[in-house]
Amino acid sequence: MKNLKVVAVANHLESSTAYGQQMRMLLEEFPTFEWHYLPLDMRESVQRRMTFVGSLGQDITLTTYPTGGDEIHIAENTFTVADTVKPDFVFLYEDVQWLNEYAKRKSKWPRISWFPWDNDNWTPTIEEFMHNADLPVCLSEDTKQLCADHGFDIDRIYNYVDDASFKPVKKDKVDDFKEKALGIPADKHVLLYVGRLTARKNPEILFAMARELKKVRQDFVLLIHADAADPGRTCDPTMEVLCHDVADVVKFSPNIEWSNLPPKEYLNLVYNTADIFVSGHGGEGFGVPACEAGLCEKPFIMTDCTTTREFGGNGIHGFGAPIMSSKTVLNIHRPIPDYKKMAELCSIMLDDEMLRFKMGTSFRKWVLENCRREVVSDQWTKIFEKCLVKKVTVKQHADNTT
Length: 402
Hints:
With 402 residues, the chain is of the alpha/beta class. The chain folds into two domains: 176 residues, Rossmann fold (3-Layer(aba) Sandwich), CATH 3.40.50.2000; 201 residues, Glycogen Phosphorylase B (Rossmann fold), CATH 3.40.50.2000. Helix content is 37%, strand content 20%. The strands form three sheets. Strands 3-4-2-1-5-6-7-8 form an eight-stranded mixed beta sheet, with helices on both faces. Strands 11-10-9-12-13-14 form a six-stranded parallel beta sheet, sandwiched between helices. Helix 11 links the parallel strand 13 and strand 14. Helix 6 crosses helix 9 and helix 10 crosses helix 13. The protein starts with a strand and ends with a helix.
């Protein structure tokens, strides 16, 4: 397709968040576009032209702009920049409540809104967004179906999962890393969690699960690849470890800071140490770490909600842990998985190496078929063409006029 001019708004390309990482890969996949970028969380002080070398070896050039306003999730000057640049479209990647603020404002430029919806409930927030947005693109089949159930036919594109960086590693190298870098004996099974320790992730479940599993076996380590001092954490991991008496079976990856991305080579080795990826999340818009672990041929046990099911959590690529209760986080009901059942499922999988192998190799195939760079970029090309040619809006979808 032709070289397009794009005004993009999302987290900074060096951000540790999925938003920044996804945008970096998007830019790498479309290096010939003229990119005008408004970074949200690491704000630029002046307009500047910059070039970086992408992971695929090509130079990516973009112009970055200061973002106006005090709200970190909103670039108030987005449409001012767009009126100057005159882009083919504006590309927005954020949560629904913030994207709706852009959607409600008048703009002569088509707006693509890529958004995660990390729960199974329909709320007034997403209803309003669907009526206001130009071209919304969700991150999961779960969300696409939820929208369809309420009369909105929208597009779905999964997050990129970096197949160039995440892959299986030879056992001798993994065992060496496991012992020397992580301090875990080679004969110990590893249950791995990668992510933040925030309310939506239900981190307390992991420690309760480890306590239950410890009652029946001691041949495992729960490896938490997270920042134990994360300022956004909603539990005290030190207290959780002590109160659940799991200090002997829980380890934290060393030297992890939530705001700094570890090298992908290091993270790939971390994934490869795992026997099972585990998460007690309260809903995922997508769930990149689970899929990165999948590229390393690792099965999973996660809460049976949102994307767990479409990732194959019904016994194909892993298991969905049943929900035992719920809590309210920022006015959204979040499921809480049954930690005793999670421990049971972990024990079953740890005892069955062939089951783990079959699930893991099959999951890698699924991720490659659905989320590798080439696949996702081909889908974006079609969306960009649709935006330019048809100028389709969600309201038109809802009114069945297209």
